[in-house]
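[audit] Reproducing an earlier prediction to check determinism. Same input, same settings, fresh worker. If the C-alpha cells differ from the archived copy the diff job will pick it up downstream; this log only records the rerun itself.
[audit] input (389 residues):
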Amino acid sequence: MLSVAAVPALLPTFINEWSLSKTDAGWLNGTYYLGYLLAVPFLFTLTDRRPAHSIYFVCMALSGFATLGYAFFADGFWTALVFRLLSGIGLAGTYMPGLKLLTDQLERINPGADHSRSVAFYTSSFGIGMSLSYFLAGELAELWDWRWAFTILGIGPLLALAYMAAILPRQNAAQHAQPTTHLLDFRPVFRCRPAMGYVLAYTVHNFELFAFRSWVVAYLAFALTRHPGESLVIAATAIAAASNVVGLPASVLGNEMARRIGRHRAITLIMWTSALFAVGLGFMLDAPLWVITIAVIAYGVLITGDSSSITAGAVAEAPPGYKGATLAVHACIGFTGSFLGPLAFGAMLDISSPTGIGGDTIGSWVWAFGMAAAVAALGPVFLYLLRKR
C-alpha cells in the first residue's frame, strides 16, 4: 500500500510539471482504479478455484515494479497513465484476494464464527497504507524529488511479498463448496438481491471516498491561496495522511455500531452524515486554516466509518460457493466508483469554473463536493430497495 497514494499526494507537482488540466489529473488518479476493475473479475473469481496466495504473490510483485517503472520512465501524461494502470492491476490481485486469504484461514481455524471484526480490521488497513503513502510521498519528495519518492515507495510491495511468503501458513485453508458454473459466470451473485445492495452501496461509497482521497492535497493547496501569508500547521500531505489514518478506528467502530443497531441502519446514518459534511467542505475554504485542517480529518472519520460494514455485509450475503465471485463483483463494480469519483470530481472542477481553470474558485469546489455527496447519498437507497423481503 505504500505506493497507492503517491500520485494524489504529489498531484499539484504533476499538474504543474506536465501542464495537466484538472480533467487530466482526474484521469491520472482514476486510471489506477480502472486497472483494478478491469483485472479483478478474473483474478478474484479465480480464487474460488485456485489457491489465492499464488495470485497474491504475482500481483504484489507487479505493484512494486509498476511503481518503480513510474519513477524511472514516466515523463508525461500518457506514460504515467500506463504505469498507473499496471499498478491498479497489481492492487486487483492483492487487496480483495488478501481478504479471501484471511477469511479462508479464519474459517479453517474457527469454522462458522462471525469474522466481521477481522474484516473490519483488514479493510481499515487500506486507509493505514494510504496514510503512510501520503505522508512518505510528501516527505520524500520534499527531501529529494518525486522520482526518488516513487523509487523508495516501490520497494514497499516487494518487502510485503517477501514477508507474506515467509509467514503464510503452508496448510490448506478451509474448503468451501465449489462453484458449479464457469469461471466468469456471475449470475448467482447478480440474482442475490441483498448482496447486490451492498455492492451498489460500496460503489457510491468508493465514488465519494476516492474523489476525496485523490483531491484532498489539491483542495488544501487551494485553501492556502485563500490565505496569503499563512501556512498550514503541518504539510498538506501530512494532513491527508491523518485523514486516512483515522479510518482505522472509524471503520472498526462503525462495524461495532452495525453489530449493535443493525448494519443497514448504521450504514444509512454514516453515509448521509458524511454526504452532508462533504457539502460543508466546499463552502469552508475561507475559514481559518486550522478549522479546515480539523474538518478534513473529521471528514476522514465519517467517510470511512461505513467501509467495513459494507464489505462485511457483502461477505455475509454471498451465495454458498460464490464468496470469491461475490467479492469479485463487489470489488469490480465497487471500484468503478473509485475510478469515476476522481475523474468526475476533476471534470466538475473544470466545468463549474467561470475562468475555465478548474478549481480556482470556491464555487467550483462546492459543485465538486456537492456532486460527490449526491452520489454517496444513494447508498442507503440501494440497500433499502434490494433488502431481503
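[audit] rerun output stored. Observation attached for the diff report: Residues 200 and 382 are 6 Å apart (CA to CA).
[audit] end
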